[in-house]
């Protein structure tokens, strides 16, 4: 079996998804989980984008022990210097340099002729060679680059000292046979190609990112770049879990494998979804809620007779456990602790006690507390932002003939509890107006989404919001059996994170790759 290296860019290209903004703690939590998943390489960010990003990449570089940590850089000395700084302390550092090569980018973005592109990239690789033994070079928009020029660029990058050459389909324009053909041509025509690894980096604008990555593998790619849940710029990147499961399920066809610990896929997907606030669609391959659900009678009948009639992957393979232990209000601490272990949580005694109290509260409101309820309850807070504001009480009045209003109290940082009443054009609007009045924060609600954690009228509701203040935005999450309370909790959570972000100097909000 050929080994295919997995380059995870959830923390860089994934973070370029609209509305996503990960702080250092969140990046670290995801990086630890990526290590458990067994990815070979972790692209932690773009250090030149801001001092905040540089610090986050450095924290990941120092923390990760079992994967190469990578920093992105334009083909400029000051960007390379920023990556040198950011990767200090990394066990296995790697620089990821890029420069656009396609005619469209050369003419309109770079205003460079082919020769200048070659010279600029070569100069950057040679400069970087003083600091890094591992350098990946990406020919941005390779998919739309003339194939003979791409061969020239690859030849130059090998001679200058790159160890991985990446062929990005930056705008998701390729189809599998075209994209595969690029790899085949490079393999056949570029001298010394056997000395380096070829990498595929695809975007999903036409829904072909996974198919294109697999076509690259069939034509000689050694490495696949992608993100968990396929998040990323615009329509996203290749979903790593899809490539890994395609190779695992169809090893007869691909004859290739990844080093991933497949049982960590579900957990990694949930973590990334929670911390980025990007909900995984129910019908998403591998990690969607319906990926293993069988609805039609014919399918259910087949499944009961023999699972393989309609199931090509067992849910256990990706770490979805079929837990038989159903908890309710009569369940005791021991059963609850057992369930936490089953779900993969390692909590201190104190944390178990706190979680148990919350569970009892929930079990009073809900007959059966499912695994998903427990996860939602435990993972409500994104990553423990210090609580400047704490929601204390909430009372909402709604009638279709009257103006909705909310009375709400919040505990402030100084310990005082303040209360106010506000009206709005709906119940959520009234709640948010009351919170704004109490906190004197001026924010814009950029995004609001709500979903039910499980089925049924007593299901937990989970609300996700994105708040913007000037050029800083922050997300928040709230979970409750009542959607209005969940809405309030999410808003307060986001406010706490906004306050925290304001304190972080140089934290940029969006990466600008020019
Ligand atoms: O899509 C792309 O071209 C990129 C590069 C920076 C590798 O993300
Ligand atoms: Zn990309």
Topology (SSEs and partners):
Elements: E1 2-3, E2 5-8, H1 24-37, E3 41-45, H2 51-63, E4 68-74, H3 77-86, E5 93-100, H4 103-110, H5 114-129, E6 135-140, H6 147-160, E7 164-169, H7 176-189, E8 197-202, H8 209-218, E9 223-226, H9 240-249, H10 251-254, E10 256-257, H11 265-276, H12 297-305, H13 333-342, H14 349-365, H15 371-378, E11 390-397, E12 405-411, E13 417-423, H16 427-439, E14 444-452, E15 461-469, E16 472-480, H17 483-502
Bound molecules: 3-methyl-2-oxobutanoic acid and zinc ion (ZN).
Major sheet description: 8 strands, parallel, barrel
What strand line-up does the widest sheet have?
2-3-4-5-6-7-8-9
The total tally of domains equals 3
Helix count, DSSP H or I runs of 4 or more residues = 17
Question: What is the percent of helical residues?
Answer: 25-40%
CATH superfamily of the largest domain: Aldolase class I
The fraction of residues assigned to DSSP E strands is: 15-25%
Radius of gyration: 25 Å
CATH topology tier name of the largest domain: TIM Barrel
Report the structural category.
Answer: alpha/beta
Count of distinct strands: 16
Small-molecule binders here are:
3-methyl-2-oxobutanoic acid, zinc ion
C-alpha termini separation: 39 Å
* Overall 3D form: globular
Label the CATH architecture of the largest domain: Alpha-Beta Barrel
Mean pLDDT: 92
The poorly predicted ranges are 507-514
The CATH class designation of the largest domain is Alpha Beta
EC number: 2.3.3.13
Catalytic activity: 3-methyl-2-oxobutanoate + acetyl-CoA + H2O = (2S)-2-isopropylmalate + CoA + H(+)
Subunit structure: Homodimer.
Organism: Paenibacillus sacheonensis
């Amino acid at each position: 079996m050929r080994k295919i290296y997995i380059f995870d860019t959830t923390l860089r290209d994934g973070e370029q998804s609209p509305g996503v903004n990960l702080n250092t703690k969140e990046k670290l939590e995801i990086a630890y989980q990526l290590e458990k998943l067994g990815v070979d390489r972790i692209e932690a960010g773009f250090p030149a984008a801001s001092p905040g990003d540089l610090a986050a990449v450095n924290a990941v570089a120092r923390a990760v022990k079992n994967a190469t940590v990578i920093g992105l850089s334009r083909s400029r000395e000051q960007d390379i210097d920023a990556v040198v700084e950011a990767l200090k302390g990394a066990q296995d550092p790697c620089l990821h340099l890029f420069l656009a090569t396609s005619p469209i980018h050369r003419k309109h973005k770079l205003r460079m002729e082919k020769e200048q592109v070659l010279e600029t990239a070569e100069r950057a690789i040679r400069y970087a060679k003083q600091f890094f033994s591992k350098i990946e070079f990406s020919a941005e928009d390779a998919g739309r680059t003339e194939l003979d020029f791409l061969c020239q660029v690859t030849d130059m990058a090998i001679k200058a000292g790159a160890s991985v050459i990446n062929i990005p389909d930056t705008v998701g324009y390729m189809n599998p046979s075209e994209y595969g053909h690029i790899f085949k041509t490079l393999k056949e025509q570029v001298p010394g190609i056997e000395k380096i690894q070829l990498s595929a980096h695809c975007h999903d604008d036409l829904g072909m990112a996974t198919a294109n990555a697999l076509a690259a593998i069939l034509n000689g790619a050694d490495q696949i770049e992608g993100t968990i849940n396929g998040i990323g710029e615009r329509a996203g990147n290749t979903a790593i879990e899809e490539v890994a499961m395609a190779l695992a399920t169809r090893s007869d066809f691909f004859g290739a494998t990844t080093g991933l610990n497949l049982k960590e896929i579900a957990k990694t997907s949930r973590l990334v979804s929670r911390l980025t606030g990007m909900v995984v669609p129910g019908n998403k391959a591998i990690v969607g809620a319906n990926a293993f659900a069988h609805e039609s009678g014919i399918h259910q009948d087949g499944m009961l007779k023999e699972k393989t009639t309609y199931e090509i992957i067992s849910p256990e393979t990706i770490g979805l456990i079929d837990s038989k232990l159903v908890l309710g209000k009569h369940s005791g601490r021991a059963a609850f602790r057992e369930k936490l272990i089953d779900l993969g949580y390692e909590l201190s005694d104190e944390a178990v006690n706190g979680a148990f109290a919350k569970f009892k509260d929930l079990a009073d409101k809900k007959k059966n507390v499912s695994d998903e309820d427990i996860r939602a309850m435990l993972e409500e807070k994104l990553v423990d932002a210090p609580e400047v504001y704490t929601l204390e009480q909430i009372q909402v009045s709604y009638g279709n003939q009257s103006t909705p209003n909310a009375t709400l109290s919040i505990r402030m940082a100084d310990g005082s509890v303040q209360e106010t009443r506000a009206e709005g054009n709906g119940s959520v609007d009234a709640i948010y107006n009351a919170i704004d009045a109490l906190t004197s924060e001026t924010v814009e609600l950029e995004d609001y989404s709500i979903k039910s954690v499980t089925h049924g009228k007593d299901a937990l509701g989970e609300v996700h919001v994105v708040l913007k203040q000037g050029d800083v935005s922050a997300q928040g999450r709230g979970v409750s059996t009542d959607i209005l309370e969940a809405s309030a909790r999410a808003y307060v959570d986001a406010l706490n994170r906004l306050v925290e972000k304001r304190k972080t100097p140089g934290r940029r909000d969006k990466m600008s790759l020019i």
